[in-house]
Specification:
By secondary structure, the protein is an all-alpha fold. The chain contains 12 helices and no strands. It has helices at 2-29, 46-52, 55-87, 91-106, 109-135, 138-142, 155-180, 184-191, 196-225, 228-233, 241-251, 255-292. Helix 1 (2-29) packs across helix 12. It starts with a helix and ends with a helix.
Length: 293
């Protein structure tokens, strides 16, 4: 037993070292006074200062956070509603829709990105042709009307693409909580005089909240981390943080990338700590309530 325990701990230690050693090296060299990623030239914060003064990176960060937050909120609402709808379907219909829902999860990102780019280009061209047809009509010319429904790749197409691949993750996260939910709870609330909205908001939604939060976090992580789909659907006027980092790496590996990666890693680490503390407090409060009852 002791030997198994020692070997298990050693294996875990080697595994964590293999996973986090590159990140640790990246963090250390983000404070390197030299541009080299192999030779230590002293401690400095200059790369963080230069990063804060880089308008391209700051604009890409603003775009990334805006797209990620909007896509996460919309995908969470739509995905939760879709999961509730799936749970009320018959088994055969539910299996069919879940199969379709799981396709974006297993599909290659490059296929999704290229297909969505082609869809957006086709839709923009169709709408542009339709606008031209309307503008050539006699009634439009007599009324001095001008239509322009066409669009190019940009922020809106990028947002739609992120919402599209975020929704399946929310559905997959919420469905297990729906399976665990006692269907008699909502009916009992209705029998006690609650409206359907009140029963959903005060009875069903709190039970689904852990799955909703997990789906929201996964959607936010996938959205803020995405590169391939964003690369094909953002166009030439909008850039996300991953796209800027990719363009910087293509030229040369600047220590600003190390600083940026370090800040992102710290932000994710703090987010995980907050989530774990929140879950621990919720479990402790549930145990106290169970002991009191």
């Amino acid at each position: 037993m002791k030997k198994n325990g020692i070997f298990s701990r050693l294996f875990l230690g080697v595994l964590f070292l293999f996973l986090y050693a590159p990140i640790f090296v990246l963090i250390v060299f983000s404070f390197n006074d030299s541009k080299s990623n192999a030779v230590w030239g002293g401690f400095t914060l200059d790369w963080y200062v230069q990063l804060a003064q880089n308008r391209t990176v700051l604009e890409a960060l603003r775009t990334t956070l805006l797209v990620s937050v909007l896509a996460t909120v919309i995908a969470t609402v739509v995905g939760t509603a879709a999961a509730i709808g799936f749970s009320s379907m018959k088994r055969r219909s539910r299996s069919l829709y879940l199969t379709v829902n799981n396709i974006p999860l297993t599909n290659a990102d490059i296929i999704t990105g290229v297909s969505m780019m082609l869809l957006f280009v086709f839709a923009g061209q169709v709408l542009a042709d339709f606008s031209g047809w309307l503008n050539n009509q006699a009634w439009a010319e007599s009324a001095n009307l001008w239509f322009d429904f066409g669009f190019n790749l940009g922020f809106i197409t990028l947002l739609i693409a992120h919402i599209t691949f975020d929704i399946p993750y929310v559905i997959v996260s919420v469905l297990p909580k729906l399976r665990q939910l006692d269907p008699n709870l909502a009916e009992a609330a209705l029998d006690l005089g609650a409206t359907r909205w009140t029963a959903f908001r005060k009875v069903v939604l709190p039970e689904l909240m852990p799955g909703i939060v997990n789906g929201m976090l996964i959607a936010f992580t996938m959205s803020i981390d995405d590169f391939v789909i964003s690369y094909f659907t953002a166009g030439s006027q909008v850039s996300t943080l991953s796209m800027v980092v990719y363009s910087m790496v293509r030229r040369r590996v600047s220590p600003e990338i190390n600083a940026l990666s370090t800040l992102m890693f710290v932000a994710v680490l703090l987010l995980l700590v907050v989530i774990n503390l929140r879950q621990a407090r919720q479990e402790a409060s549930r145990k106290r309530q169970a002991l009191r009852s």
